């Protein structure tokens, strides 16, 4: 399962980091304020106002510009609390307030099938006070100081203090969701985060900084740079997993192509006019 020399890719600089994350807590007044706003919006919808117009005006989610419409989604792809509330609705019915990992919602069910639902929603997030942000910042500043003094390792501190469930059990190490490895290209970091990382040397820890998680919630972080590679031609020492996956994919492609060629001998194949002049890699499609 060898790769042709010309197929070996040039690898950009890649970075591995660990992080400790603290979520500043919203106080009860902020939660109460969001719920009051959503209750009033729900009442307006029930009294005949357009849900989609109100979503454009008030929702804090990325779907606001589409009237809160998030389109068709598999039940398992959505937050469990969101899915449960949506499934309990009849078509065009509006939910009561629902709390999810993203914040607080009111949801309108547009349609559903056995395994998918189509909804729109208005999302609001309780505001985090300046005092709560400062508390999180001070906590991380103190934590970074004791780690630098070798009073506790970064990995143990992440286990004990980080609020990020995706990384705390792994010593704070972040996994790239696109590749399922611990390596990130520079352009895969948010710009604000990259500016923090670029000034770190291997093993060093950043000062606390404000960021957002993948649900859009405010967080505070400290980051430790684990490694930074220089741009290079892929090799087995540094890029074993990548090259292994590429070789496996090439082998799978060959097997599938061979199967198609064999099946084409006794299978009727008809190409529509727009596709007849396309350039095909498999000979079976050319005849």
Question: How would you characterize the overall build of this protein?
Answer:
- The chain is an alpha+beta fold and 287 residues long.
- The chain folds into three domains: 120 residues, Roll (Chitinase A, domain 3), CATH 3.10.50; 96 residues, Chitinase A, domain 3 (Roll); 48 residues.
- 34% of the residues lie in helices and 20% in strands.
- The chain is flat, with a radius of gyration of 25 Å.
- It starts with 9 loop residues before the first strand and ends in a 23-residue tail after the last helix.
- The model has no long low-confidence stretch (mean pLDDT 89).
Specify the CATH architecture of the largest domain: Roll
Low-confidence stretches: none
CATH domain topology of the largest domain: Chitinase A, domain 3
Task: Name the helix and strand elements from N-terminus to C-terminus, one letter apiece.
Answer: EEHHEHEEEHHEHEEEH
Choose one word for the global shape. flat
The biggest sheet, with number of strands, parallel, antiparallel or mixed sense and barrel status, is:
4 strands, antiparallel
Count of DSSP strands: 10
Taken together, the total number of domains comes to 3
* Top CATH class of the largest domain: Alpha Beta
Q: Level of helix content?
A: 25-40%
Cross-sheet strand order for the largest sheet:
7-2-9-8
Strand content: 15-25%
**Category by helix and strand content:** alpha+beta
The total of helices stands at 7
Distance between the termini: 30 Å
- Return the average pLDDT rounded to an integer: 89
Rg, nearest Å: 25 Å
